[in-house]
Amino acid sequence: MAMEVGSAGVEAVAMETEHKGPLPQPSGGRGVTWRRCRLEMTAARLEARKETKERRAGENAKKRKVKRSDDGKKRGSSNARQSSTIFLFFLHNSIVAYEKTELVIIAEAQGTVVGVNYGMLGDNLPSPAQVVSLFESRGIGRLRLFHPDAAALAALRGSGIEVVLGTLNEELPGLAADPSAAEKWVAANVAPFAGSVRFRYINAGNEVVPGDTAGNVLPAMRNLAAAVRAAGLRIPVTTSVATTALGVSYPPSQGAFSEAAAGVMTPIAAFLRSTSAPLLVNVYPYFSYAGNPGEVALDYALFRAAGVVVRDGALGYDNLFDAMVDSVHAALEKAGAAEVEVVVSETGWPSGGGGLGATVENAAAYVNNLVAHVRKVGGTPRKPGNATETYLFAMFNENQKPAGTERHFGLFHPNMTEIYHVNFQP
């Protein structure tokens, strides 16, 4: 997260892939009950067929007047009991496995839109195993790692949590220049975990565009995507940018990449379109408000406006988050990639640090209103229908980040107690 304040109108912003799209979503907890009933009815039918088969076998045996010794009868009885025990054991395990699968699907259906960034810039943070347990206990189904961490990836094995895995920015030159470097990166950081960790995206660098090394991003993305395919995996490869990549952001329909970014972002957008991968964007209404308090109303930034604040043609905006996301949609359209989805890879509000509006009350309002909004509204005015996949920044306050508000974006203290409560369950 960068802290430069943009100046493109009131929307000016100042800020720091396995399968695509959510799994099928059953309706609440009823799915497990319904499927269990169906399995139990199937079990009853199978048991009835088994009894019928045994009865007919017995009748046929009588007709053939086959004599069996007492030992044979004992063996037959024992084998039948054994067979029945194995059958019932298999059936029980099938029901349990099915229910566990359904519970995972239901948990994802309930919390799939919102994930949380797991940053590690602190010397007092809990262990990765504790962090993963905290994600699970709060029903958080998606997690973003800024770089590969073996302990974190090991802790995520079998959790069902979907993972956005980033590369370090300093790795990009090597990944861009040498396809074998990308193959080694995938072999070391993805392939060993792919059987038990659910990778959602791989993002090549964070907020590199625009900048002196921005030219490395697309070649690195291409090499990583080829390495993922060569490993027999299907994980979308993308990158993460800040809204400072926009030269115009207000009104949202006029959103366009800046002159400095357009030369890189246009081919990146074309690559994402060709691979059906989304663009990850870090969206911080907080910095837009803090940098322009005279023009950006606090209630507009906190999802508390009483009605439409910004009218953009036929579209109306009652919150800054949607307006910022739609300015990126408009920029992608102008770059010839209207089909590319926008995933909000970071967003949050500081609970302290001395910045304007950086209070626990405002942070709690922003995050909870955001979670409720992206779940219920289903998209933005420009792109209605699909909920905006969003990752909160961040899980913990991190004491090794720069002093000030950057140390206060966490949902939890390092001791895993809440800074404020977030309702992740619908």
UniProtKB/TrEMBL annotation:
<dbReference type="InterPro" id="IPR044965">
    <property type="entry name" value="Glyco_hydro_17_plant"/>
</dbReference>
<comment type="similarity">
    <text>Belongs to the glycosyl hydrolase 17 family.</text>
</comment>
<feature type="compositionally biased region" description="Basic and acidic residues">
    <location>
        <begin position="46"/>
        <end position="61"/>
    </location>
</feature>
<dbReference type="InterPro" id="IPR017853">
    <property type="entry name" value="GH"/>
</dbReference>
<feature type="region of interest" description="Disordered">
    <location>
        <begin position="45"/>
        <end position="79"/>
    </location>
</feature>
<dbReference type="Pfam" id="PF00332">
    <property type="entry name" value="Glyco_hydro_17"/>
</dbReference>
<dbReference type="InterPro" id="IPR000490">
    <property type="entry name" value="Glyco_hydro_17"/>
</dbReference>
<protein>
    <submittedName>
        <fullName>Uncharacterized protein</fullName>
    </submittedName>
</protein>
<keyword id="KW-0378">Hydrolase</keyword>
<dbReference type="GO" id="GO:0042973">
    <property type="term" value="F:glucan endo-1,3-beta-D-glucosidase activity"/>
</dbReference>
<dbReference type="GO" id="GO:0005975">
    <property type="term" value="P:carbohydrate metabolic process"/>
</dbReference>
<keyword id="KW-0326">Glycosidase</keyword>
